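During the reporting period the student researcher (J.K.) took over the structure-prediction task from the postdoctoral fellow and processed the backlog of single-chain submissions. One of the processed entries is reproduced below for the supervisory committee.
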Amino acid sequence: MYNTKQKTQLIEYLKTQKAPMSATEIANNLKEIGKSTVFRLLKTLEEESIIKSFAENRIKFYIYSPQCCHEHIHAACIKCGRFIHLDSEASHEIEKAMEKSGLKIDSDQVIQCVCDKCRSSEN
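J.K. obtained the following structure tokens:
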């Protein structure tokens, strides 16, 4: 799909976000783009591997993910929303552990976790 002004605007906005956001949050922050257009563009951007998504409590969250970001696994904290890029070595170890259990992880998926900061604040 070609780049429209609205698509470019959405990509630029997502590049500035540090934590995953729901489609509704994104649409509410981009009032100059209609909600239905935001939802349609998010689907397109995901299909084009420009963004990643994951679901939590039946809500889909999105985050910008550049093309060079497909060589490793990602995690998102379910408490604070922090998005974590696991290094290649950690990604490889997780893939090996999954394979030992007869599973294959898709590196385009996001693993849900509780980050170290949220764990330390629980104590």
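The committee noted the following: Helices lie at 5-15, 23-29, 35-47, 88-100, 116-122.
J.K. will present the remaining backlog at the next meeting.
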